Amino acid sequence: VKLIKTAPAFKVSDWISVQSSLSLLTNVASLARSWAEMKDSFATEAIISAMPFIEAAAGASSNDAMILAELIQLESDAEAAIFWSLARDDSLRKRSVAALQTYETAVSDKSGGDLRTLLQFCKDLVYECLFLNIQKALNALPKVRDWGSETKSEHEGGAEVPEFSITPMAYATEVGEHLLKIPQQLEPYIPDDEDAILAFPSSTSEAELEMNFARRWIGAIANGAMALYVERILRLPKLSSSGASQLAVDLDYVCSVLSALGVSILTTVLGVRTVLEAEDIESAVHSIEDPSSKSKAARVAAIRGVSVRL
Prior knowledge:
The protein is built from 13 helices and two strands; from the N terminus they run H-H-H-H-H-H-E-E-H-H-H-H-H-H-H. The protein is mainly alpha-helical. A two-stranded antiparallel sheet has the order 1-2.
């Protein structure tokens, strides 16, 4: 991930790194699923082996056996089998201990933890590769123009109006075009349903539980893009009327792309857009209901030179 971030020659336009990271993720997810099935198989064998000993303990009449039976009820089936075997027959002690050690080694937290760590690394790598060009484009936002300067042109009738382009700026179109390419890049690497569950992005919310592999990844990248966009806007020191109008055009374009991809626009983004488009800035801020969105909208208002008391 660090190499990808720092390599000056790295370009996601050829999508080679994106494809490689997706291939790695789907393969590791398949491995994790196979390992989980193997653990289930071990557990099934342990339960089958444990049943005769559990039944023997349940039918025992001696005081010791009754105590053992109570203990067995508190333990897992695999532990019960070993525990009862050791107490019942000394000749089985060595074999039982060896079997338990083999089982514990095979399904140890370390082995499972290593796989979980690797799987998380793969998810992070896929996200970094898919998000890098978006991040570069949005990081350039403060430099693409002087957002605080007021440029005006004379309108019919002699009135001066803020001057801005009715088309989005290059940084915004770069974000939009990149987002539109993501679905076709994900398609060849969509895993089987069982593997896909393990390959979902870590940021998946409760509302996205019914979504498939591609939609979840598109949603994760889109949400990251919206959050970063708002963050970059809030870092602008000043925003003139013409700057706000241009930014509204840019943001509206990106929102249109996201809607075309089936992504719900975050309330914070909607709030920011409302303030950017508004003539009555204070009323626009107070019209926003969500507290967090209203707070960010008020910060945009402040950048536009209007202090709003919440």
